[in-house]
Amino acid sequence: MSNQLFETIQQLNLAPLLNRGVFGIEKEGQRIDGQGHLSALAHPDILGDRQFHPYIGTDFAETQTEIVSDQFDNTIEVEQQLSALEQVLQASLPDCDYLWPLSMPPVLPADETQIPLAHFTKDVQDYREYLAKRYGRRLQMVSGIHYNFSLDSTLLARLYGEYYHDQYAQLSDFSDALYLQLAQNYQQYRFVLTYLFGASPIAEAGFLKAGQSAPDHPVRSLRASQLFGYTNHTAKIDFESVSAYVTSMQTAIQAGQLISEREFYGSVRLRSHSLASLATNGIDYLEFRGFDLNPYAITGMTQKQLDFLHLFFTYLLALPKQAGTLGERLQQGQAVNEQIALENPNQPSSQQTILVQIMADLHQFILDYHFEPRFLAAWDVMNQQVLDYQLTTSYQLAQAIQDHSLTAFGLKQAQSMKQALLAKPYQLQGYTDMELSTQMLMFDAFQKGLHVAVLDRADQFVELTYQKHHELVKNGNMTSLDQLVSLPLVDNKVVTKILLANHGMRVPAGAEYTDVETAVADYQVAFGQRALVVKPKSSNMGAGITTFVTRPTEADFKQAFQLAQAYDSRVLVEEYIAGSEYRFLVMNQKVQAVLERVPANVVADGRLTIEQLVAKKNDNPLRGEEHLTPLQNIRLGEREQLILKQQGYQVTDIPARGSQIFLLQNSNISNGGDSVDVTDEVDPSYFAIAEQAAKVLNLNIAGIDIIMPNLYQAYNPEHPEMAVVLEANYNPAMLIHLFPMMGKRRRVTKKVLELLFPEM
Amino acid sequence: MSNQLFETIQQLNLAPLLNRGVFGIEKEGQRIDGQGHLSALAHPDILGDRQFHPYIGTDFAETQTEIVSDQFDNTIEVEQQLSALEQVLQASLPDCDYLWPLSMPPVLPADETQIPLAHFTKDVQDYREYLAKRYGRRLQMVSGIHYNFSLDSTLLARLYGEYYHDQYAQLSDFSDALYLQLAQNYQQYRFVLTYLFGASPIAEAGFLKAGQSAPDHPVRSLRASQLFGYTNHTAKIDFESVSAYVTSMQTAIQAGQLISEREFYGSVRLRSHSLASLATNGIDYLEFRGFDLNPYAITGMTQKQLDFLHLFFTYLLALPKQAGTLGERLQQGQAVNEQIALENPNQPSSQQTILVQIMADLHQFILDYHFEPRFLAAWDVMNQQVLDYQLTTSYQLAQAIQDHSLTAFGLKQAQSMKQALLAKPYQLQGYTDMELSTQMLMFDAFQKGLHVAVLDRADQFVELTYQKHHELVKNGNMTSLDQLVSLPLVDNKVVTKILLANHGMRVPAGAEYTDVETAVADYQVAFGQRALVVKPKSSNMGAGITTFVTRPTEADFKQAFQLAQAYDSRVLVEEYIAGSEYRFLVMNQKVQAVLERVPANVVADGRLTIEQLVAKKNDNPLRGEEHLTPLQNIRLGEREQLILKQQGYQVTDIPARGSQIFLLQNSNISNGGDSVDVTDEVDPSYFAIAEQAAKVLNLNIAGIDIIMPNLYQAYNPEHPEMAVVLEANYNPAMLIHLFPMMGKRRRVTKKVLELLFPEM
C-alpha cells in the first residue's frame, strides 16, 4: 500500500522520520462530588489564575476542567506530561472533589441554569453565555480529547527540497496539500476510531433535549454521532482547499452560523494561529476533536491510543487517491460513522469486514515503513478489539450500566483514579525517573502555573517560565539565585572554613597537607590529646575518612593519611567534633527548615529480634531502595553487622525493651538514617548562625551542617563551641525536609519558586 | 643552650611551632631617573590613590616609595608577596624611572628644600614638614626594611595553658614577658645583624649635615650607627616593662621630644594598634627596624635573610638570663653595634670571636629544636659571611664604590633589577606556580590597590577586597558576577544549544544518543550527505571526537560512536561546520576581545626545513611548555608527523616558499596553535551575536566560540550560517587575549576587576 508520497519517502530513506511529528493534547473533564453530582465548589484556588495557567484551566462550566499539554515531538512525552498534570490537578482538588472519567457528563441539575458557567473575564463569560443560549448548557458539558498533530519538519523539508519543489511553489503549499489530504481522509475513515475509542454509550437521565429520543440500547459513542453529538448543523465548512476552508468559515461567521472559528465543532480543524494566518501561511497543524475520554486511562487516553492515532494519521496520508468527489466521500464517511456510533456495543459491528480490512492494511503499512515497535504493539491492541467487540471500551461500559446510569461506575472509577494518583505524594507521575526533589519542584511549578520544560531529563535540567521570565533549575535548587563562584567555594572545604572563621564562626580546627611528614609533626603539636578526623580534601560521601576518638599513634595516623590520599593528594586533618548533626536549610537568608539526622537505628520492644525490628521499620512506605523513596531502607550488610558485633549484638538477638540499637555511625539519610524535623524545636538563636554562614558564603540557597550539643539551650556567643559549623552545601537536599521520617513536612520546593518568581 | 621556656617547649613537644609565627615587612626605597638622581616625576597615577592603597604608597618624599606586605604565618609567603609588589611597582614606573637599591639615598639636590615632600593630605603633609624641620630632609631620605614579628598563637596558648598559667595572671602577661625579653636581647645582640646585613658603607656627597664628618673609609652600616643613622637622640624609651615603655613614650611626647610614638626611631618597637591598647591589651607584635636594603635582592632582603631573622629572634628568646642590668646590657649592645656599624668592611670584624661563638650557638639551637631545613640553609649562608668578611654585602659594596660614590653601582643595579622584573610580563613574581591568568588578575589587583588574599593557591582561589567589599575569584574569572546554574548549563552542550536555538541563533544541528542503533537510523536520515561530528556529550579537550567530512559508512559511524562512548555514555551526533573559529570574549554584555585561532602551522621560506621552521617559530619567548608561557610550543610528535605525512611532507622537507604547512587540525592554543587578535578587524555586526549568546545563557563573563566563513563581511540575518555558535564557556581563557601571538594585547583582567568593583 503506497502512493507517490510514500514511494518518495521510501526512496529518500525518510521512513524513520514518520516515527516523529509534533503532538499536543487538550483534555476536558467534569468535577464531581462524592455522590457523583457536579461539584458545587469553585475551581481550586491553589492552581492560581486560570486565565494565565498554561496547563490547567476551566472550559465552559466552572466544574469543567481543561488540561492542555505542551507540544512534543513524540507522544510519549505528551502522555508523561498529561499524567503529571492529571496528578497535579487531582492533588489540588478538595478531598471530596473528583474528576468524572467519562465524556458524557454526570447527572446534571434538572434546571440547566443551575449549571455554573466558569468564572472568567467578561468577554469570555459573554461567549459562554452565547454558547449556553445557542446549544443549551447541557450539550456544552460534554467533554473529550483534542489531539493536535503536525508532521515532522525535517520530513517535510527534505521531501520538498529533494523531490516536491518542482510541483509546489513553496514548502507550505506542499504541506498544505498533505494536511488537506489527511483531513479529508480522516473524515472519511474516522469511523474506525469511533469503533475503537467510542466510550459514551448513554447519556444520563435528563441530558437529552426535549424532543430528542435516546436510542433504546447503549451505543458506541453518542458523542461522536451527528444526532446526539456536539456538532454544528448549519455551518458547511469546505475542506477542498485551504482557501475554500477559510472562505467557508468566513461565510458561516458572516451568516451568524458561527460566532468565530472556535465555534466550529467539526471532527477536524485546519489550524494556524489565526484564520488570516491560515490563508497566508498555510496549515500549522491539524486539530482532531473526535475522541471520547477513556474512563480506564488516567489521562483519558492511553499511550497505545496516542500511538495508534499517530499511526492512523500517517496511514491516511499513505492511502491512494480515493474514488468519488470530496462531498461524496465525506458524506459516505459520515454515514458509516453515524452507523458505528449509534450501534449497540453488545454486538459485533455492522462494519466488521471493512474494519478488519483496514487493520490488515495498517499492519502491512507498519511493516513496509519499519515503524518503531510501539506502533505494532498499539496496533495489536486495537486489532484485537476489532476481532472481538467484547474488548472495546464501549462494550465494557455497556456492561457497567446500572439502572440506565453510569453514575456508580463513574464515581467508583473517579475515586480509585484519585487514590492511585495520590498514593505516592513524593512522586510526580510521568517523571518518576527524575530525582524526587526535581519531581516535587515540577509538581509545585505545574500547580502554580509556571511553564515547565525539561531540557535534559537525565541531568535534571528544567526551565521554568512565567510570561517572559525564564529561569533554569538544575537538581532542584541550583539556580540564578546563587553565584557561580559559590560552587567551587563550597566544594573547597578549606576556603569555606577560612571564610567562616574570618567572620567569627566556630569551625573545626585543622589544616591541609599533601605531605604526611608535615602532617605527623603538626597533629602531635596542634591537637594534643584531642580527637581527630583525617579526610581527603575533596570527598563528599564519607569515603577515605578516618575518625580517631583518642589521639592516634603515629603509625595509625599515617595509615589514615594514606587512605585519605587514595582519594585526594590533599588531606585535611581536623579536630573531631562530637554532638548531634543538624541540617539547616537556608533560603534568602532565612532558615526554612532544620533537620536532625540520626544514624540508622532501631528501638527494641523486648519482643522482636533486631532483624525483625529492621524489617518493621523498613515497612514505612516512605522507605525504599535506590532513592526512589524519600527515606532509604536500613540494611543489614557486613558494615551493619560489624557495628552490631562491636556492641555485642547479633541480628537474631532481642535487645532489652526501650534500648536504641545503632546500625551505623554516619547519619546520612541515604544510608537508612532517620530524619526528624526540628524546625520548631531548635532554639531560634541558632537560626542566626546558619543564616550568617549562608551570608558569609554568599549562598542564597544553602544547606548548613551544624553540630550542637543541645538544640534547646540558647546559643551563647561566649561559648562558640555550642554551634560548630561543619560545612555548607550549594545544592542542599530538599527531599529530607519535604518528607522527614518524623515531624512536620516542609514544602521548601515552593520557596524556591517564590524566590525565582517573586512577581507571581 | 636553653632556658625554662625552651625546656617547656621541648617537654610539650611544641618545637615544630617555632617554625611558624606572624610576619610582615615594610620596605622603603627612592625612585631615581636614568642618571641616578632623584626622580622628578610624581608617584605613578596607575597605582591609584596612595592613601588607600594597601600595599604601595609613599613615605616622606614624593620619590620615596613604601611597600607594605600583608601578615603571613611564614616568611616564604611574605617574600612572595613582596616580589609581586616589587614587580607591580616597577612595572608601574615610567620607562625612565628606577628604584634606587640602597638604603642611603642617591645624590640629593644641593638645596635640600628641592627634595619634594610626598603629595598627601594636609595632616600627613604637616607631619612631613615637621620631620623635615626637625631632622632635615636629607636624613628622612634614608630607606630600610621594617620586620614585624609575633610568635605563633598556638605556641603561646599551649605554653600558657599547659604550663605558664600559674606564673601569669593572663595569656597576654605571659606573651608580654616573652616579647620584652626578645626586644631587650635584640638590642643587646643586634650587632650580629649589623655585621651580616650592613649595606650602607657610605653616604653620597652632601648627605651629611654640616659639622658631621664622614668616616674616611667605607663602613658596614652608616644607617645602623648611632652617629650617622636615623635615631632619636633625646627621647629615652624604657624597655623594662610594657608599662615603663608606654610611660616613657608618653613622657617623651609630652616633653616634645617626639610628636607621637611613630617618631620613635629605635631599632625595635613594642606594637599594638595604639599606645593605649599596648598598655591594656599587651604587645601584639614587635617591629624590628634596623635593616639596610640588600641591593642584591629585588625585595631588599633575601628569603635567607628573612629566615635567619626569624631564627635569630627565636634564639634570642632561648638565651639564658643575661648578666647585668637592662641599662648596662643595652649600653653594651649599643657600643658593640656602633663599633661594627662603623668599622671598615674591607677588614675582618673586631668582634669576629663573639660572632663565631654566636653562630656556633645558633647552629646547636637549630639542631636541638629540629628547625626546618631552610633555617639551617640560611644559617649556613650567614655563617660563611662570619667566617669570611669578603662575603658580606658591605664588603662587596665597598668594592663597588667609585669616586666616593655608589651612583654608578646603584644605577646599574636599579636598571638590571627593573629589567629582570619586566622580562616576563605574563608572570607575577612570587606566584609563578599559579595559573597565568590568575597571576595577571592579581597583578592588576595589586596595582589597582585591592587587597589580595590567596585563599587556596593550588585551587586558584583568590579573595579581593576594597574597603569592606569582598569578592572571591576562582580561575581568574569565576566570580559573583555569574550565576551558579550557568556552570552546569554551559557544561551541558545539549541544553546550551537548545537555549541558543530557542533564541534564533544558528547552532550545529544534531541530537543526543545513548543507543548506537537509534543514532545510526537517525544520522542517515537527518544529515543526508552532510559532514558529521560524533562526540561524547561531556568532553572538553577534544578526546573521543570523530569528524566525518563525507557521510560515513555505517561501520565507521558505529566505530566513532563507540569511541565517543568510551568517554560518556551519552553521545552527540552533530553536523560539522566548516570555517575559521573565533573566540569572542564577552563581559557585561559587551565584546571585549575577539581572537582567531589557527591550528599549529609554519609558513615556509623556501630555505628552512619544516623541523627548522618549527624550531624558529618556537623561539618566540611567549612560547613554551606546560602552560608556563602564554603560547605553547609546536611539537613534532607522532600526531604532527602523521598529519604532515597525509599532506605528503616529512619534517626534513623544505616546502615551497610561502606555503603554509599545518601540523594539527584542532586550533587549541594549548596545542601550539596561533592566536591572532582580530577585535578591530571583525565586522562589528558579529559582536551582537556573541553578546546575545552570552545574554541568552545569562553569562556575564563568557567565551563564545563562533565559526564565521568571512569575518569582514557584515552578518546578514537571512543567512544565519554566517555565524554558527559552537559553544560557550563560563570560565573563558583570558591569557590568549592578554598575550596573543599577533595583534593587540587586550588587558581583559582589568575589566574583570572593574566589573567586580564598580565603586573604585
From TrEMBL, chains A, B:
Reaction(s) catalysed by this chain's protein: L-cysteine + L-glutamate + ATP = gamma-L-glutamyl-L-cysteine + ADP + phosphate + H(+); gamma-L-glutamyl-L-cysteine + glycine + ATP = glutathione + ADP + phosphate + H(+)
Domain (ATP-grasp) ranges: 497-757
Domain of life: Bacteria
Pfam families, sorted: ATP-grasp_6 (PF18419), Glu_cys_ligase (PF04262)
Swiss-Prot/TrEMBL cofactor(s): Mn(2+); Mg(2+)
Pathway: Sulfur metabolism; glutathione biosynthesis; glutathione from L-cysteine and L-glutamate: step 1/2; Sulfur metabolism; glutathione biosynthesis; glutathione from L-cysteine and L-glutamate: step 2/2
E.C. number(s) listed in UniProt: 6.3.2.2, 6.3.2.3
Keyword Magnesium assigned: yes
HAMAP family for the chain: Glut_biosynth
Protein name: Glutathione biosynthesis bifunctional protein GshAB
Gene transcribed to yield this protein: gshAB
